[in-house]
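Worked example

This section walks through a single chain of length 67. The input is the sequence exactly as stored; nothing has been trimmed or padded.
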Amino acid sequence: MQVGAAAQSPRDQRGAFVNRARATLSRIVSMVRNNPSFILFTFNMLSKEEFDEWVAEQEKFLRDLMR
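Given that input, the structure is written out below as tokens.
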């Protein structure tokens, strides 16, 4: 929801939404770090590498939103 709100909001108001999205992504990464089985059962991904690629894509998307 936060990413969608950031994508639709004016550039000068995106920072708050992007920061919330980054915080949520950080919580997801720490959740997976604590319990790696979330990669399969919650995100339906087969490997840690696939999850890491997804996280990198999300981080890039958030960076691009701030440009």
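What to look for: The chain has a mean pLDDT of 94.
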